[in-house]
Structures are given as C-alpha cells and as structure tokens.
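Appendix B. Worked example

We walk through a single record from start to finish. Start with the input: the chain for Ureidoglycolate lyase, Phaeovulum vinaykumarii, length 165.
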Amino acid sequence: MKGDPILRAEPLTAAAFAPFGDVLAADGPPDRIINQGNCGRFHDRARLDFGPGGRAGLSIFEARPRALPYTCDLLERHPLGSQAFLPMNGKPFLVIVAPDCGGRPGVPRAFVTAPGQGINLLRGTWHGVLTPLAAPGIFAVLDRIGEGANLEEVRLDPPVHVLAP
Ligand SMILES: NC(=O)N[C@@H](O)C(=O)O
Ligand code: NI
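Next comes the structure step. The output line below is what the pipeline stores for this chain.
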C-alpha cells in the first residue's frame, strides 16, 4: 500500500550481520587444513545455543521460493535457541532481521546472501521466516529441539516491502 515502509536489501556481510547472528561461508583462508591437505576447515563459526533442556536438531526445510520485491508481514523469534539455515541449493536467499525494542521488533534490515552463504540466527533474534529466492528452496536447518515455547510471532501492520539491493 502507498505509504507502507520500504526496505532496500543489502548484500550480506559478517560485520553487518554480527548483532543478529553469524555468516557461514568458505570465505578467506580456512582455520585449519585437514584431510591430508585436501580440505580447508572453517572451524566452529557459529554461536550455537540450544538452551537448558534443549538439544540440537538437524532438519530439512523445503520452502516456497519468493521474489523481490517481497512483502514481509510477520517477524518471529526463538527465545530458547539459535537457528541456522544452510542452503542446499547454493543459491542466494533473503534474510530479514530486526533488533529487539522492549519485546517487539525494531526497525528491520534485509540482506541477500551470496551464493553458498548460510546464516545462524542468535537465540532471540527477530527474523522473517525462511525466504528462498530460487528453486529448489531446500535448506538444512540446525535449531533447538526441546520443550518450552520457542516461537514468538509479531504481525507487521503495515507490512514492510523489501526491494532488491
Ligand atoms: N517455524 C520454523 O520451523 N521455521 C521458522 O522458525 C523459520 O525461521 O523459518
Ligand atoms: Ni525461525
């Protein structure tokens, strides 16, 4: 709708994303060379957190691909654990995050990943749901399995319209 907030997506960088989570990528020199020199290990690159009473779960998501401009009308967060999305299609996807302001999302930011980049959302980070930008929208997802209310959702009214970088 006319007058709704507009957000221009940014290319994802580890520095810009740091307050919200981690960027998983084979960027720069590896931390270790393993497997008889045939493999670079980018070691322990995500701040994983499954909280008390939880454990790590590895799932596969197949999400419907979207296109930019994209209308975001919902943000959510997981107060009990982190959530990592690793694309199995090697394609860019859209990541929308927001700071917390008194228990509600603040001004959101949108990022488009580079091919092959994955993300890990810190526990409690407000985010849009998984938003592939290309088919097949297949991702490995590492997040918390356990008891407790680990999903808070907030409807955005008006919604935010996200434009390509
Ligand atoms: N609900 C669920 O499993 N997925 C969302 O948390 C998401 O961030 O896509
Ligand atoms: Ni989530």
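Two observations about the output. Residues 75 and 128 are 5 Å apart (CA to CA). The longest strand covers residues 152-163.
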